[in-house]
Structures are given as C-alpha cells and as structure tokens.
Design goal:
CATH class of the largest domain: Mainly Alpha
Strand content: 15-25%
Radius of gyration: 16 Å
Order of helices and strands: EEHEEEHHHH
Number of helices: 5
Shape: globular
Structural class: alpha+beta
Number of domains: 2
CATH superfamily of the largest domain: [2Fe-2S]-binding domain
CATH architecture of the largest domain: Orthogonal Bundle
Length: 164
C-alpha cells in the first residue's frame, strides 16, 4: 500500500532539489522521471543488474531498491555529478581512453561502482575490482577493457595522490 505523497528535499549532485513523492518510490524513478537525470539507467528493477548504481554518501547503492523517503539529508551522486563541474572523473576518462563501452547501457553503473571502490581503495587488486563489480552485469563482452579502465583510473588516482 502506498503512503501519502510527501514533500521531500533531496541533495543530488551538490544541489538541493525539492519534489513531492510517495516516500516508498524508488530513487531511480525520482532521478529519471522527476529530475531528468537519465544517466542512471533502468535495468531489471530487481536489484540484480547494477545498471542503476548511484552513490549515497559516496557508497554505491542500487537506486531501484532504495526508497526515496530513506534518503533523508544524505548526499546523492549520479553519473551526471560524478566528475563535478571540473570535468570528468578519472574513471570516466579511463573508460573513454580504454574504449570500455560497447553498447554502453551498463557503463554508468559500472563507473559508479568502480569510482566508489577507488574512493575507499585507490590501489585495488584485480580480485578486489572483480568483487566490487559483482553487482554489475554486462552482456557485451567488454569485461577485459572495463578492468583495464579501472586499473588505469587507479593508477591516475594513485599518481595524483603522490603528486599532492
């Protein structure tokens, strides 16, 4: 049974946004249909493909499974806000450089999961990358380029940390 629509204040990609929605509505719907942030894709809507991965407070979450009413004042980042206003995130750039997309449908979720991993572990092993990507499915067969892109981004991030 649905709850009564409620006025909600969300913090998305560094901006405060307001909407009225049933608190049980998946964040995915609010992002795509209300806020127009269509980079977060709709896949299985069951939490099994990872295509809708976003960040909540820097952690990878599945937007199709997260009720908007559960967000509260936590910061949400979508693929559109990942690089910020200063350009692309190193993971986004590495995916371009390594040509890690074929159809591209899974790529926003892959990038969000990979970038979340690199936030907590800037020098992951190949096994750690594979574990972080377990929730994300890709049917195009670009897995080796996806892994190369994440390793490349890790090198870029590690190098940047050493230069600071």
């Amino acid at each position: 049974m649905s709850a009564e629509p409620t006025e909600l204040t969300l913090h998305v990609n560094g901006e405060t946004r307001h909407t009225v929605a049933d608190p049980s509505t998946p964040v995915l719907f609010v992002l795509r249909e209300i806020f127009g942030l269509t980079g977060t894709k709709t896949g299985c809507a069951l939490g099994e493909c990872g295509v809708c991965t976003i960040w909540v407070e820097g952690r990878a979450e599945l937007a199709c499974q997260l009720p908007v009413g559960d967000l509260g004042s936590r910061d949400v980042t979508t693929i559109e806000g990942l690089g910020g206003h200063g350009g692309l995130h190193p993971v986004q750039q590495a995916f371009i450089d390594e040509q890690a997309a074929q159809c591209g449908y899974c790529i926003p979720g892959m990038i969000m999961s990979a970038a979340a991993l690199l936030n907590t572990n800037p020098a992951p092993t190949r096994e750690e990358i594979l574990v972080a990507l377990e929730p994300n499915l890709c049917r195009c067969g670009t897995h080796s380029r996806i892994l190369q892109a994440i390793e490349r981004a890790a090198e870029t991030i590690s190098k940047g940390a050493k230069d600071d």
